Amino acid sequence: MADLVxxxxxxxxxVLIEYLTSIPNKFAVKTMLTDFPALMTxxxxxxxxxxxxxxxxxxxxxxxxDKVLHFAGKDRxxxxxxxxxxxxxxANIQNLxxxxxxxxxxxxxxxxxxxxxxxxESVNAxxxxxxxx
Length: 133
Hints:
Blueprint: H1 3-9, E1 15-19, E2 32-33, E3 36-42, H2 54-58, E4 67-71, H3 78-90, E5 95-98, H4 122-132
Parallel strand pairs: 1-3, 3-4, 4-5
Antiparallel strand pairs: 2-3
């Protein structure tokens, strides 16, 4: 059973620590933070629009570390999400954080004549993940 699922099923509080994929150095993964269990979350496009994908970054850490992959949906559509789900499943990663947040660094303004950046919203991502299995 994945650690995150275990903590949820036991109604236990845990801390998610987000590791940035833009930082090339691998940091020691914390397992506890102020007496609470801590889990690794791999960030999605925090520092740069060209950051390494969370899934690709996950391979730099030992397989025995439970990982939570963050899919922010920035500049991605439903086909990108299906690919992400399939890749996470192939890598046996069951914990996903599907949370849309900040805009891309190079997001186009609404007042511009250029095309706006597309987003896959969190609610749609959660519904799709449930349907996809």
